[in-house]
Amino acid sequence: MPKVIITAAISGAEVTQEMNPAVPYTVDDFVREAKSSADAGAAIIHLHARHDDGSPTQDRERFRVLIDAIQNACPQVIIQPSTGGATGMTAEERLQPTELDPEMASLDCGTMNFGGDEIFVNTENMIIEFAARMRERGIKPELECFDKSHIDMAMRLVSKGCIDQPLHFNIVLGVNGGAAATPRDLIFLRYSLPEDATFTVTAMGRHQLPLNVMAMAMGGHPRTGFEDNLQYSRRVNASSNGQLVARLVRIAHEMNLEIAAPDEAREILKMK
């Protein structure tokens, strides 16, 4: 069985220090949380950028500073910038991190109703544009799919030659407007993927841990971190992203699974 790749989504764009004081805002905060995750066993750091006041940004130069600082502290880890950004951002704003030529980046595969009047827009032409930019720069896309229609969109664009194989998906569950964070929905979406695809599972809040465990049991990979879940147990905040990663490492070992180091993750995802 392939080794398990743990992704740590250390910041997100929505969570705040009012929710958990350990949420990173400053460069030093980001380095602390990335290093705690990498030291605990995460091979991939999924990165949303923040200004020092906590406001989300897709600014290329802020990403540059954060990526350089994290790479200095964790030279082997895979850094995966988000091209999702935050609602209301233009495509060009969201694409700024790709100008830094990261190894990997997220690629959202469908539009979402986030609640109220908030719409997370990802038209077919936008997805094609994002995929083309990643191909031009040699960036491995992680295909973020919040529902079955997003998987169908990704596969349609594969058939059109817009997205290159081999494919790596992130099945995201429990986000408003997308599939529910239930075992039923995870099983359905996992078996909607091509047989030769790799996949990570992301689930929100209290669903993060059980569905991460299911992912590992189904031959996939888990994602944890403050973007997805701020708490270690009910009403008890996690002290760091590393604490959440370490728990997954312990559980994986109990399941007789080994944890992939960053270079092993690159091989599994066919990034090398």
Mean pLDDT: 97
Beta fraction: 15-25%
Helix/strand structural class: alpha/beta
Distance between the termini: 20 Å
In CATH, the topology is named TIM Barrel
CATH superfamily: Aldolase class I
Spatial order of strands in the largest sheet: 5-2-1-12-11-10-9-6
Q: State the order of secondary-structure elements, H for helix, E for strand.
A: EHEEEHEHEEEHEHEHEHEEEHH
Low-confidence stretches: none
Fold and architecture overview:
This protein is α/β, with parallel strands linked by helices and about 270 residues long. It has one domain (about 5-270): Aldolase class I (TIM Barrel, Alpha-Beta Barrel), CATH 3.20.20.70. The protein contains nine helices and 14 strands. It has an eight-stranded parallel sheet with strand order 5-2-1-12-11-10-9-6, with helices on both faces. Strand 1, helix 1 and strand 2 form a beta-alpha-beta unit. Helix 1 (about 25-40) crosses helix 2 (about 60-75) and helix 1 (about 25-40) runs parallel beside helix 8 (about 240-255).
